[in-house]
Amino acid sequence: MLTFTCPYCGVVAEESELTGGGEAHLKRFGPGSSDAEFEAYLFTRKNPKGVHFERWRHAYGCGKWFLAARDTNTLEVFGTYPAQTTEPPADLIAAIKNKRPGWEGWK
Amino acid sequence: MSEAMSALKGETHVGFATVAEAGLTGMVTIRADLSDPALAAALAPLGLTVPALRQVTAAGGRSLGWMSPDELLLVCGYDEAPALAATLATALADSHALVVNVSDMRARFTVSGAKAREVMMKLCPLDFATLPEMEMRRTRAAQVAVALWRSGADEVSLVCFRSVATYVMGLLEVSSRRGGEIF
Amino acid sequence: MSTRLAKGGRLLDRSKPLNFTFNGTPLRGFQGDTLASALLGSGRTLLGRSFKYHRPRGLVASGVEEPNVLVNLGRNARLEPDQRATTTELFEGAEASSQNHWPSLDFDIGEINDKIGKLFPAGFYYKTFMAPKWAWKHLFEPVIRQAAGLGAAPKEADPDRYEQTYAFCDVLVAGGGVAGLAAALAEAKAGKRVMVMEQTAFWGGRAPVDGGIIDGLAPDEWVRNAIETLEKMENVQLFTRTMVSGLYNHGYVIGYQRVADHTPGDGRPRHRLWRIRAGLVITATGALERPLAFAGNDVPGVMLASAVRDYVVNWAVSPGDRVVIVTNNDDAYRTALAVLDAGLSVPVVIDARDSVTGALPMAVKARGVRVLEGRGIAKVLGRKAVTGVEICAQAGEGGVIETVACDCVAMSGGWSPVVHLFSHVGGKLIWDEAGAMFRPDATRPPIKADGTALARAVGAANGALTLDALCAEAGLAAQVEPEAPLAPVWVMPAGAKEALKFKAFLDYQNDVKVSDVQLAAREGYTSVEHTKRYTTLGMASDQGKLSNINGLAILSDALGQAIPQTGTTTFRPPYTPISFGAVAAEAKGEIFQPLRRTPMHGWHEAKGAHWEPVGLWRRPYCYPRAGESHRDAVNREITNTRTNVGLLDASTLGKIVVKGPDAGRFLDMLYTGMMSTLPVGKCRYGIMCNENGFLMDDGVVVRLSEDSWLCHTTSGGAEHIHAWMEDWLQCEWWDWKVYTANLTEQYAQVAVVGPKARMVLEKLGGMDVSKEALPFMSLAEGTLGGFPARVFRISFSGELSYEIAVPANMGLAFWEALNAAGAEFGAMPYGTEALHVMRAEKGFIMIGDETDGTVIPQDLNLGWAISKKKDDYLGKRAQARVEMARPDRWRLVGLETIDGTVLPDGVYAVAEGHNANGQRNTQGRVTSTYWSPTLKKGIAMGLVVNGPERMGEVLDFPGDGGVVHKVKIVDPCFYDKEGEKANV
Questions:
Q1: pLDDT digits (tens, 9 = 90+) for C183-229
Q2: Mutate to test the interface with A, among C722, C731, C734, C742 (most CBs of A within 10 A)
Q3: Which of A29, A59, A83 sits opposite C730 (nearest CB)?
Q4: pLDDT surpassing 60 at residue B1
Q5: Which Gene3D superfamilies does UniProt cross-reference here (chain B) (predicted)?
Q6: B110 with B170, same domain?
Q7: b/e map C103-131, b = 16+ CB within 10 Å
């Protein structure tokens, strides 16, 4: 059972106190977008074996959504950060590159 | 206001710790920017200060707990809650804030006794040994959400939604039965 | 024959005799006995029958690895099957019985399987029961089920209590032997919060039996000192009878405490499951001795060498007068010494190694014992008990050199570190050639959330199998006889022929033999995981603790590859079986799951409501009166509501307040309709879609003030919709100024419905509820009958209707006041089924009936609830996809059978032709169907291809038993189409 540190309330919460929300940093496409854009937004997910950015909600805690960088293979968590951002923090990206030199980046 | 009844009307069980539904309790949810000076100003007449991360402040028999980065829970007398909510809402009228009396939507419990902690250890995935007094924690008790804080050296207070009060009392009762002491 | 020795027994308290029974026979043991030692001490060696061949079996081991002696323990509600005798502490009055035989343990008909065992090779089931196909269900499976299984399942509810508890520590030490205690001392002295869990009732592990000197002290004394020191430390918690059953991700560990197994019925919980978060897990889980594979190695009396000395030293039990030792290593000679010290005899030590020169063998030789080098056992003599062994050259094919009479064989094939915990979440193992064992690879441990090591193995669990190696690792001084290397011997003799291998058991519990594994290899099973499943090696409740390494060594040999190339099967928790009770813990009976109660729940219950689960809520389905069927009650409630007045507990409806400068804009995105333009004090029906365009929830939205709205959701939808709102506010539009609060449980809500609804409210008094003051689809706040109330003029039934919200703590009083005030007008409560029928009569859709996650609002003719003026709302883009705009989508219509009967639920309308699978094409389906007491006929709603354009058309809906229902497409609104009744 995984644990994450909620960046809002500082609590190390276990998975049973959280709900997962899938891939992070999706860009919403609404009316006017092309079929390809909309399809990518709705259905296409990276699903990597390795570094993954994902959404978690501290559902049984402060109720806030946060984002996490996690290795889907080793389950190592590189860091968590608030959801109000369109891209991961630079220091987190640097830390991941340091640990996973072969990583191709988050985009 | 007459005829109000708490979810379990003060039901109490005595095992190796005492578990009790605390009866009618006033509660007011405040959602606001916690750094907004208007919030501090609105609370000042109550003698209450805005609690820091996860803290509970108290004054004049009322307490104010940190629920999330933009939410506080004022615990007060049941009868005074509607007026307090109205007063705070008025004081915060010019700010972006939501103040609402929620005194009826929860049940409050106390678990007391030297081994009160051992009752809670059976239900919540948190480290009671390192939980300071008057720190608000929102977590899970078995299958439902609760908020709790150590309201005294040998007492834990917790609140849950009203609809699951019977369930939570069931959890507390079975977890505090004699013979179930952990240490 | 086994017997109790007159002296000794380090764990026994002879002053406390205990009475117990085995298969009904009264026997005696002592405090400190296990059921196994007490049985053996009572002269019992035949203790069970094997699973497949029903061969006579006795004890092989003295601990958790015991494969054979699983017993039924207790009786009636406290009956528990498959309890290992070796880990069951004896208590006064214990009742045990053996399993898997008929009619008796001594004479078992099933033993015929052993005689015809050649017919049951590996994969027997797969090969035999493939054809004819019908026979599996009707012949093979029933027969197999009858024959299979070990113990009997209890038939009564378990009277015992179980619980779980959460715990947190820096270091969890699994195992209370010398290595574990040394590690605990070191970590505790460094100031860490330490928990130590030992699966048995005693500290010290093997060292007190195996001997040596630790830091100048005898092991027993060293252990006593260590425990005294640890007990005094505030940062240390010690647990005996607590097994660390599994390691999981991010430092999650499960401990299984058998609190009261040895004191049944004393009021304590029987088992407690510890759910621990540990910063580091030190696995000090020791090692397990391996059997040797020779013919007849399962005859009662053939035991692990370590078990023999455990029984002698710990429990003063002689497993036999004449104990033959067979080994490939020096350690087994300790058993010879222990047996000799107890005054028993060792006729011979059979050592597979060509040259035996170690200190321990020399000490045994010095006691006058014959030690044979380069020898093995060709065959054990005896069937229900060992009578002797035939000795052969280990290098040969089994030609008998001599026969030695004996009643016990102590075997040792070397030791395997217990690597389970280290491996559970990805810790890697390496093959240690010298020790012929897999041991943890410290450079590839399981990891925690931060990527650092979760586990560290110490002592025998780390491959430090001797006391000096263990102490060197722990920084202790040790004195112990040095041991010469073992010889990796897996089968005895090396060239054993089929007849011998056919009786050489690897997995005792599942009756898997050397010949089975070799057969699997010949048949092409090259993967160890496949071989395991084909032969069932390691698949019994002991999970191959004794058989694992031997089996994969033999598989490797058959495949002609090195052992590490074959690899191990995956180690999975739990280490040994844990009780279902501990897993379920408090979640049974009344608190099996949270049951959500409205403030009026108790009233409904007292009135005999028949319940309908709605999410975790219980809502009254109807209130049947004496002699009334549920359907009668529903019909009565509907008719009364339509003619007089009905009361519905609607407290479960979701109520979410949304407030802020951007709240209107936010709701315009959330709902398909326009909410920002709703006047204050007015209500509007709204529907919500997900980004796929599909309908997800609906309800009435009320504007409370300039910047706040109240959103009603479906019952059971409140949490989900609140989370959905917060998701968009937190993760997409975080710069919008909007706050939400889920106030569902703040209010008790009652629908007062029917032509006389207004009279009831007027009787209560306090508010003007006239048509003028409170028109349809509007809100008023005030005091009603003394209760602070919000009154909504909304209707889900087509009748004049008020929904009134009062503070939940006053909900019951308000409900009672309404019932009292309504009595003179014929008010009756009604339940959810009446609600459903009445909404269907009006053609109102129900989320979950008319929607199923693939339905868009346009399918339900809800275009009127979709704003054409908005650039965007959630789901709008998806509704523009080609599939959603297709002209032949299934759309909502009313359905009526030609003969007026009720259409069955879930039936489909057929169309011409067949699809690619040869099934009839379909053109529609029923989504809701009811008897309407108002219209005195069956009414239904459904989705039909182009439905609204096909009014009056008659479709065929095939039902059960060849019946075809003729159904006419009609308008979905069956009642008061003009809406005159609600708007009065």
A1: 999 999 999 999 999 999 999 999 999 999 999 999 999 999 999 99
A2: C731
A3: A83
A4: no
A5: Heterotetrameric sarcosine oxidase, Probable tRNA modification gtpase trme, domain 1
A6: yes
A7: eebeebebbebbeebeebbbbeeeeebee
Q: Which of A13, A59, A62 sits opposite B67 (nearest CB)?
A: A62
Report the run of H or E that residue C471 belongs to, with start and end: helix C467-474
Question: What are the pLDDT digits (tens) for C519-560?
Answer: 999 999 989 999 999 999 998 888 999 999 999 999 999 999
Q: Where are the alpha helices (DSSP H) in B17-61?
A: 37-43
- Same-domain check for residues B19 and B42: no
Q: Which amino acid is at C676?
A: S
Single-letter code of the amino acid located at B169 = M
Q: How confident is the model at residue C112 (pLDDT cuts 50, 70, 90)?
A: confident
Beta strands in C642-766 (DSSP E): 646-649, 654-659, 683-689, 695-705, 708-713, 739-742, 747-753
**Domain spanning A3-99: CATH 1.10.599.10:** no
**Could you say which residues from 28 to 87 on chain A have a Cβ atom under 8 Å away from some Cβ of chain B?**
59-64
**Residue that has been written with the tokens 């009026």 in this structure:** C600
Token pair listed for C716: 């059971």
Q: Is B105 on the interface with A (CB under 8 A)?
A: no
| Same-domain status, B93 and B128 | no
Answer yes or no: is the ipTM higher than 0.90: yes
Residue B165 belongs to a domain: yes
Of C187, C190, C201, the closest CA to residue C281 belongs to: C187
pLDDT score recorded for residue C148 = 61
The pLDDT tens digits for C241-278 are 999 999 999 999 999 999 999 998 899 999 999 999 99
* B181 within some domain: no
Q: Decide: residue C848, CB within 10 A, 0-12 exposed, 13-18 middle, 19+ buried.
A: middle
Question: Contact, C510 vs C52, CB < 8 A?
Answer: yes
Comparing CB atoms, the residue among C250, C731, C877 nearest residue A55 is: C731
Task: Quick: pLDDT tens for C43-82.
Answer: 999 999 888 888 999 999 999 999 999 999 998 889 999 9
Token pair of C352 as six digits: 């597979």
The DSSP element (H or E) to which C518 belongs, if any, is helix C514-522
Cβ A14–C880 below 8 Å, yes or no? no
Q: Report which residue type is found at C529.
A: E
Sign of the torsion angle spanned by Cα atoms A1, B128, B183, C282: positive
Q: How far apart are CA B169 and CA B156, in angstroms?
A: 14
Per-residue burial over B77-109, b = 16 or more CB atoms within 10 Å of its CB, e = otherwise: ebeebbebbebbbebbeeebbbbbbbbbbbbbb
Residue C133 pLDDT > 90, yes or no? Answer: no
The answer to whether B130 contacts C168, with C-beta atoms less than 8 Å apart, is: yes
**Which residues of chain C lie closer than 8 angstroms to A64, CB-CB?**
730
* DSSP category for residue B30: E
Distance from CA of B2 to the nearest CA of A (A): 34
Distance from CA of B45 to the nearest CA of C (A): 24
Q: Closest partner residue to B24 among C595, C660, C809, by Cβ?
A: C809
Peptide bond into C103 cis (omega under 30): yes
**Average pLDDT across chain C, whole number:** 95
pLDDT surpassing 80 at residue C349: yes
Q: What chains are in contact with C, requiring at least 3 Cβ pairs below 8 Å?
A: A, B
Residue C342's nearest CA partner among C374, C369, C308 is: C308
A16 at B interface, C-beta within 8 A = yes
Out of 3.40.50.1100, 3.30.70.1400, 2.40.30.260, 3.30.530.20, which CATH number does the structure's domain C654-744 have? 3.30.70.1400
Please count the residue pairs, one from chain B and one from chain C, whose beta carbons lie less than 8 angstroms apart.
135
Q: Can you name the residues that pair with C647 across neighbouring β-strands?
A: C752, C829
